[in-house]
Amino acid sequence: MGIWILNAAVVTADNTQTTKHILVEGGIIEKIAEGAAPDTAGHTAIDAQGKLLTPGLIDMHVHLREPGFEHKETIATGTRSAARGGFTTIACMPNTRPVIDTVETVKYVLDKAETEGIVRVLPYGCITKNELGRELTDFDALKAAGVIGYTDDGVGVQSAQMMKDAMAKAASIGMPIIAHCEDNTLVEGAAVSEGEFARKNGLKGIPNESEAIHVGRDILLAEATGVHYHVCHVSTEQSVRLIRHAKQFGIKVTAEVCPHHLILSDEDIPGMDANWKMNPPLRTPRDVQACIEGLLDGTIDIVVTDHAPHSEEEKARGMALAPFGIVGFETAFPLLYTKFVATGQWTLQFLVDKMTKLPAEVFGLPWGKLEVGAAADLTLIDLETEKAVDPAEFASKGRNTPFTGWKLKGWPALTIMEGKVVWSE
Ligand SMILES: [Zn+2]
After folding, report:
1. Binding residues for Zn(2+) 1, per the UniProt record (predicted)?
2. How far apart are the C-alpha atoms of 283 and 208, rounded to whole Å?
């Protein structure tokens, strides 16, 4: 028995919307029909009238916190949060405890995802053992165990030689390097960006160069080694400029940006509230504008959430002491839809592609497609109902968001992974 999704609005390449009926069976999209509703006898029917149907959303940068930080999030709660946000494929960062730098830890995460997770989890492995920047992990063994790339996310790889060795090795086995770009010598002890907020509150700031120096260095190393180099959470005008320039030279670089870096600047921070503290930090309005322009002209390839849950107690330690990070799964699509699509700045197709088709293309994944024979990873989205962000409703253990109370449209209503309904509002 399959599922017929009837009367769904599907957005096509030229941004027009057409009504389609989709039969999901055996985990794949079996049929796509137009016109009069088909006979659904023998199948479950879901009326999607008035809702948008997209491929399941893909998020290539998330923190599931397991193993080691289960008080912040688990693979069970994190994948539920993802499903509630419309995501069916998520790629998790290895800065857990232990970090994902051995075959055993990769297997642990994949097993947990299989038994307790409800969406597809793709793990990254560390570049260096313990993310200490001193010794490369066993790239071949990690690849064989199932990682999709290497990253020391959470910290930058400080040594250029170490990064070059990592890139050369990754290139030789056809794997990407995913980089958290941050030069530690420029950020010592800072919690927020260098800018208005830091000045007003007498805080030490994190300068834009701390990110862009690594972006520039790594682009040169990527050119020298031929690796696919992917830049994490771009937040500065300088990084956008460097990546744009590198792409013009045909260097194999791709990049991602988070919703908060497209929507908020340091001038929006209301006070010493750590729900506004993340790394990279909120930058200046000029940086926000550069990230938007970079996304629009293709310099930045994809949108990711950098979903980073923390406990309330941890976030209550204040701006200086609280850990960096905000949750992202359950607000990502509504935020971007409301801010950029509903206001006519972006087409709906543009936003959907940046969260489905393009992440799949950048990482060579088979998902993110709405076509016959493709995996039945599907998301139904209500574009009409306006609702305020209420962290108490989150499926995530994390409540750490700066968007509490924001009135948004574009809420995911139903998520299907491989033909199974994994979330229904
Ligand atoms: Zn990071």
Report:
1. 61, 63, 153, 306
2. 8
Q: Is 324 annotated as a binding residue?
A: yes
Which CATH number does 57-362 carry?
Answer: 3.20.20.140
As a whole number of angstroms, the distance between CA 423 and CA 212 comes to 39
Task: Give yes or no on whether 3-52+374-424 and 57-362 have one common fold.
Answer: no
**Binding site annotation covers 63?**
yes
Cis upstream peptide for 98 (omega within 30°): yes
Instruction: For residue 206, report the distance from its CA to the centre of ligand 1, in Å.
Output: 14
Q: Across all residues in the chain, what is the average pLDDT?
A: 97
**Topology adopted by domain 3-52+374-424:** Urease, subunit C; domain 1 (2.30.40)
Give residue-wise pLDDT tens across range 326-358.
Answer: 999 999 999 999 999 999 999 999 999 999 999
Q: What is the pTM of this model?
A: 0.98
Listed by start position, the domains of the chain span 3-52+374-424, 57-362
CB 287 within 8 A of CB 268: no
CA of 141 to the centre of ligand 1 (A): 24
Catalytic residues: 306
